[in-house]
Specification:
Elements: H1 6-12, H2 19-28, H3 37-49, H4 51-69, E1 72-82, H5 108-120, E2 125-130, H6 134-138, H7 141-156, E3 164-168, H8 174-182, E4 187-193, H9 197-203, H10 213-225, E5 230-235, H11 242-259, E6 263-268, H12 289-302, E7 307-309, H13 316-324, E8 329-331, H14 357-366, E9 370-372
Parallel strand pairs: 1-2, 1-8, 1-9, 2-3, 3-4, 4-5, 5-6, 6-7
Helix pairs in contact: 2-3, 2-4, 3-4, 3-11, 3-12, 4-12, 5-7, 7-8
Bound molecules: iron/sulfur cluster.
Length: 379
């Protein structure tokens, strides 16, 4: 099991080497020789304190991304199953105390139609997202949803097309992992939100399932044990000092990759956004656009072959900078409400941009990128 080296990370945050060391580190990094935790800590300190170093880090990350993925951008789409939630996360519009939020769990038929809708738009990487609904849990509906999704994809996606089904849910038990695995799941993502135990406990009230800090960190060991080796890890930027979280995430990812046999499929960096009905309105530890660019670059340098998973919490001009500085995957259309592609809704988990698919794909191409994992020209 992973042991978070909190004191070591706090010490690493004080490091700040000179430019010579930075250049040496950057020159040594390649797809097969990623930066280790110490090197990332050096680069973090150097990038934050010197604009020349900052630019060199972003540039190197952009080049590394190109050497692994060329000019492709993997496109995904989130698809919400339910917004009924037993948890009371202070930053989320789906928290159980938000009585003004209309609640909905898709029926099998509604889910099938929603799947057909997003596949009809051309999307081939579907991220199933759900809140922690007692009814979905009790009735083992997750495995049903995965089974239906796999079935619809087998009918609608051509054999020569790249596709992927991802699940982002709660802390699954061994039995639940076995069930979704059997139903066809191969990719499990979960964001830790923050690796700061103290802040995590403040944001996730005691007594709610989500307050299980250690179990959340350990869930990937279970996923891998069940045969689901492709995992996605991430932090919600803005909840805690991001530099600590970034180093902790990288250390955790290295553990999963090197000691657990996991494939770090994606690294997420959603940034705090206002959510109607949430207890906190503003990010407790705001993260600037420049900070986010440095975080993307450092993810890339630590995990050259993983996807750095961007999202439409951000505006397009910033997304472009993030793609040029190490990002490799993003969504375009985005509904954060169950059934929101079939019946567009205003309510949602948090504020996001929902970009038009065709126009945004064209914009990506005009900016030198080749969208991947999406069937172009679909309606
Ligand atoms: S973040 Fe997830 S678990 Fe927490 S209240 Fe929102 S939907 Fe529920």
């Amino acid at each position: 099991m992973y042991n978070l080296p909190e004191n070591r990370i706090i010490k690493l945050l004080d490091w700040n080497p000179g430019s010579t060391v930075v250049n040496k580190i950057l020159e040594s990094i390649s797809p097969d020789n990623p930066a280790d935790l110490d090197e990332i800590a050096y680069l973090l300190g150097a990038g934050k304190s010197d604009t020349k170093n900052y630019s060199a880090i972003i540039r190197q990350a952009g080049e590394l991304k190109k050497s692994v993925f060329g000019n492709t951008v993997k496109i995904f789409i989130p698809l919400y199953l339910s917004n009924v939630c037993v948890n009371r996360c202070l930053y989320c519009g789906f928290n159980a105390d938000n009585v003004s939020m209309p609640r909905k769990t898709l029926t099998d038929e509604e889910f099938r139609i929603e799947m057909e809708t997003v596949l009809g738009l051309g999307y081939r990487v579907i991220e199933l997202v759900t809140s922690e609904s007692p009814a979905v849990k009790k009735n083992h509906r997750l495995a049903d949803f995965v089974g239906i999704a796999a079935d619809v994809m087998s009918q609608k996606v051509a054999a020569d097309e790249d596709s992927q089904l991802i699940l982002m849910s709660w802390l699954l038990s061994d039995d639940e992992f076995a069930m979704v695995r059997k139903a066809g799941l191969e990719n499990f993502y979960l964001w830790q939100e923050t690796y700061s135990r103290q802040i995590f406990m403040k944001l996730h009230p005691e007594g709610t399932p989500k307050s299980a800090f250690d179990e959340r960190i350990e869930v990937f060991d279970k996923a891998v044990g069940s045969g689901i080796k492709n995992v996605g890890i991430g932090i919600l930027y803005g909840l805690a000092p991001w530099e600590f979280d970034l180093l902790a995430l990288i250390d955790h990812g290295k553990y999963l990759q090197n000691e657990c046999g996991a494939n770090i499929d994606a690294l997420g960096l959603p940034r705090f956004k206002h959510a109607k009905g949430a207890m906190i309105e503003k990010a407790p530890y705001p993260v600037t656009d420049d900070d986010l660019r440095l975080a993307v670059a450092l993810y890339r340098l630590a995990f050259p072959k993983s996807h750095v998973f961007l999202n439409t919490r951000e505006k397009l001009p910033l997304l472009l900078k993030l793609l040029n500085g190490g990002g490799s995957e993003m969504n375009i259309a985005c509904s954060v409400y169950p059934g929101g592609y079939t019946n567009p809704q205003r309510d949602g988990q948090f504020d996001v941009y929902n970009y038009p698919t065709e126009k945004t794909l064209k914009w990506l191409k005009e900016n030198g990128f080749q969208p991947a994992y999406i069937r172009l020209g679909e309606k």
